[in-house]
Task: structure prediction
Amino acid sequence: MKEIQSVAIIGMGALGLLFGDMLQRGGAKVCFIAGEQRQAKVAHTPIIINGEARRFDMIAPDQIGASFDLILFAVKATGLKQAMADAARAIGEDTAIVSLLNGITSEALLAERFGARNVGGCVAQGMDAVREGTSLRYTHPGMLVIGAQASAQEPALARVAKLFARSGVPFQIDSDIRHRLWSKFMLNVGVNQVVMAAEGTYATVQRAGAARERMIAAMREVIALAQLEGVCVTEDDLRYYVDLMDTLSPDGMPSMRQDGLAHRPSEVELFSGTVCQMAKKHGLSVPINEALYREICAMEAGYMNTTKTFHAETVTDEIVRWIQDFFAKNGPDCNAVVGISGGKDSSVAAALCAKALGKERVIGVLMPNGIQHDIDMARLLVDHLGIERYEVNIHDSLEALKDAIPLELSEMSKVNLPPRVRMATLYAVSQSRNGRVVNTCNLSENWVGYSTRYGDAAGDFSPLGKLTVDEVKQVGRVLGLPDVLVDKVPIDGLCGKTDEENLGFTYAELDRYIRTGAIDDAAHKEKIDRLHARNLFKLQMMPEFELNLPTIDDNRA
Result:
């Protein structure tokens, strides 16, 4: 039996990178099948896996000249048809084929296209890998459960098992892989869809409450459906997979939620779409999945429609010209000074200034408060743009200021003091380097006052002040910024919560309300309106007492 030496992977998502890295480190010759656009993107930005840079060989579909010993399909269900076409030249008579896709249909589709003999059943479970751009992070690598659905498949599966054992890939062989596929499908239908609908993380369904109950109810509908399909999925399976999900990182999120954040089409058809279609054949009532299907389809329609009305390329060009005009009038030889946090707003603002003025006229200032765990994101941005940088740790200055103030500071004072110290630092750098300070706030944050007056809300010009969060991300992609910076989820360093958890609603919901006036949750509408009214003063000029005496301007023609 010929051992597997060469492995081709199609799909550079979380699973493709996770297991591609394991196999390569285990001695296998790994190559990703990818188009020229994907190859060019990765060539300029290294793949970072748990903080370490990785390099992989890549080959375009039309450049494949020989078959591989193993093909791993690691795309989304929506991309399987194209993936099969792209991988066709890499599949020979003895090529083992393994699908890492969610759902219960991919193996049958692959067998129909390439023949069933070498297509093994596989379930990827237990991993909490999250991919952000070209960065992958995970705490639990999970494992691959493999098995033959027919005796003719056993030789190919034996070769795959031997490779996994040799390479250190966690795996398990299941003699009833169809039961395992349906059990994992049950979990995906519950956790992926409920986290997507709630716009949360694994923590949303790990804690007791309505979301967790809804997840379990959706899973029970799959149990009933599986039994009608002749597969004995039980409550014991449900408990096993819920317990497994509870071990995942609370801050992680399933791939479906990642699709929602990136405004990509999700796998809703693969999950509740499949459940509803099969249930109809059996006359089975599945109200939870029907409701989830409607909600998620409506969410997709909302953000896809928002994307269509905003022309990111045009707006990017307009902002660049606006920055150039501002500097022509307010400092033709001045530099743009921008505080770099590593988040989307400072990254996009800095990139716009570099495009408008040239990288030599942009100065980035990194200002951690003691230890900043994501400081590498800020360094990645300045390195990517090639701009000059200063790194100023504000911790000692901040603590000295607190000690010098002879009263007990309120909690809100403590929250707002760091951004105000940072702004003082920016103006010190700016005045010393002939600069103009960039305000990096966006419209969504400004709308509800999620900024600090005379802190991050200050500045000399504001390139993003009229763009929502989603629109800022789109501009970042036009500018070619690494996805890890554009899609980075903002987290409050003081409490560890995301901005959306602090606000009590999502940016997608807020952006839609700002642009269309439409919002589904009456309580969220009331909160947004209240925050907007309460914080309007931050967006207005400082009031001045009007004295009815002439000034020199009154005498000018």
About this structure: The radius of gyration is 27 Å. The mean pLDDT is 90. The longest strand covers residues 119-127.
